[in-house]
Every structure is written in C-alpha cells, then in structure tokens.
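Hi Y.,

Following your request, here is the sequence exactly as I used it, all 147 residues.
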Amino acid sequence: MEEVFSYELRSSAITMFTFVGLTLVGFGLGLVFWLDFRRRFLGRGRIAGRVVMIGGTLLGAGFGYLATQPGYFKKLTADDLGMALDYYLFSEDVFLRWGDVDRVAIEQDRLLVTGRSGDRYQSVVVYRGDQASLVRSITRLMPDDSP
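Below is the corresponding structure, written out as tokens. Let me know if you'd prefer a different format.
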C-alpha cells in the first residue's frame, strides 16, 4: 500500500486575497489622484490622472505579488517515489525523486529541501508547532539508501 504525506503550508485563498487586496489599494490611491487631477487641471489633468491610476494599480499589483512570497513552495506532497512541491501562480511545480533529495530540515521556521544538485527549495513560514515531527513525517517515506 502506498503512503502519501501531504501538507499545505499556506492557503491559496489567503494568497489571492492579499494579492487582490493590495492591487485594489493601489487602484484606489490612483483613483483618488485621478479625481484630484481631473478637478485641479482641466484637460491635461485627466491624462496625468489616468497615468497615476494605472501606475498605482501596477504598484499595488507588484506589492501584492511580492507579499505572496513568490519562489517559496506552498504545499508539499510526499509518497514512495519522491516529493512534489507546489508553488503559486507564476512558478512551476517541482517533483524530486528521493534519490535527488539530499536533506530535509527546518531552518529559520521554513521547511528547507536541498537537492543533490545543490538546488534549495524553501517553504513559506511553517507552523510553530512540533517542527521535528513534520520533518520525521516526510523523511520516513525516504528509502533507506537515501541520506
């Protein structure tokens, strides 16, 4: 019987909520400037206001994207073959066979998976509970000839 261990480190809904929320904040600030410029400057104020509104939206989207911690995996699924690391929107998911995994540990409250090729995969901040138990749950699925 195949054993599967799966742990989601952060909900995708919270990530999308943060991204959309900060994008809306940027849009709202841009909208306020657009209204102000439209009232103050006749003609050219509308163009400047639109530029500021678009800039505010892009700035909010940029900060929203950075707040979601791109580059950190959100979900780990391990079975007898290896482990799958699921990322957010703009990153590809990774599957590592157990022979490619060098070490699984927790450093600075993040789950760290190091590959034999030197690649490092970090999670978003893990829970503050029994972190050693989380590592044991993953490493018990590793074959005996793996470190």
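Strands lie at 5-8, 75-78, 82-86, 94-97, 101-107, 110-115, 120-125.

Thanks again,
Q.
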